[in-house]
Structures are given as C-alpha cells and as structure tokens.
Amino acid sequence: METTKIKKELRMLIEKESDLKVLEAIKTLLLKSELNPSLKGKLSSRALNAEDDIKSGNTFTRNEIDLKLNNLLGK
Predict the structure, then answer these.
(1) Residue 75, SS3?
(2) What ranges in the chain are assigned the alpha helix state H?
(3) Cβ contacts of residue 1 below 8 Å, gap of 6+?
(4) pLDDT for the residue 35
(5) Do residues 50 and 21 make contact, with C-beta atoms less than 8 angstroms apart?
(6) pLDDT tens-digit profile of 45-73?
(7) CA-CA distance, 53 to 9, in Å (whole number)?
(8) How far apart are the C-alpha atoms of 34 and 18, rounded to whole Å?
(9) Disulfide-capable partner of 35 in 28, 39, 68, 74 (CB 3.0 to 4.6 Å)?
C-alpha cells in the first residue's frame, strides 16, 4: 500500500475513534517511532490489545472505575 493511501486510511480511522486510550496509544506510537525495535513492539502490542479489549466490550463504566478507586482509597 502506498504512503498516501495509508495516511488517508489512518486519518479516517483516527477521526472515527472516540476512545482516549486508543488515541493516546496511537500518539505514543507515532511520537516514539525512533524507539528501539523491542520497545516499539511492546507498545504496538499493548495498543492492539487495548483495541481488542474495547471491541470485545472488556471495559469499565465510569461508575465501576469510581467504585474501584474508592475501594482502593478506602472511601
């Protein structure tokens, strides 16, 4: 696939994405493109795993996060 076609597809996918964690992972990958291959592979893997979790519904609601945080903080 040529570069311009990939960039166009990436722009479209990024515009559709609403999950902040996925967008942050993409940003990290792009900013850290100079990282050593091992670290780059780990970051890519985490981003892909996060995307799979989101697609499969393996996420927490805001209320669930608040409850977990309150329990951790002893509130």
Answers:
(1) coil
(2) 3-16, 20-31, 37-55, 62-73
(3) none
(4) 66
(5) yes
(6) 999 999 999 999 999 999 999 999 999 99
(7) 22
(8) 26
(9) 39
Mean pLDDT in residue range 35-47: 81
Contact by Cβ (8 Å): 19, 54: yes
Q: How many residues does the chain have?
A: 75
Q: CA-CA distances (angstroms) from residue 8 to 51, 55, 75?
A: 20, 22, 47
How big is the CA angle at 51 (ends 50 and 55), to the nearest 5 degrees?
A: 120
18-31 residue pLDDT tens: 999 999 988 888 88
Q: Of 14, 32, 31, 34, which Cα lies nearest the Cα of 23?
A: 14
Which residue type is seen at 22?
V
pLDDT at 43 over 90: no
Query: Taking the model in full, what pTM does it have?
Result: 0.42
